[in-house]
Specification:
Layout lengths: L1 H19 L2 H35 L6 H33 L27 H13 L3 H12 L5
Helix pairs in contact: 2-4
Amino acid sequence: MKLILKLIAGIVAGILVGLYIPLTGVELLYTVKELIGQLISFTIPLIILFFIASGIAGLPKGSGHLLGKTVGFAYGSTIIAGTLAFLLVTAVIPFLSGGISFEAEAVTEVGSFIDLEIPPLMGVMTALVTAFVFDWYEPAWLRHIKNCVGSGARYY
């Protein structure tokens, strides 16, 4: 329950700060948001690649069947959830949109102080597929590295 109250307090604080902060402050916060977003979008494929590859490599031999079932279940449940969400929205939205109308006020253009683009090295799906390929094709040098790391040996 504490987390929900913190989230609500953060939303209210954000609304109040957004109403009373000058435009320069908003642009500074927007710049920080953009920089952090670029760093996150750069690191997410790498995190997926290395954590999934190390997790798959740590599985015992012969567990590929279980891994295939797990991946199939994850993707299947995602497709089912997306389909159900689409059907629900398609059924409910026509009843809600009849009396809704709003008029937009004048828009203030907010820009970033720094335009910095950090493209990710690969996409998320590429990272997933690469992690599985690294597990299926395990050369001798990779086994040697895993044995060294797993045993705690240090080679400098």
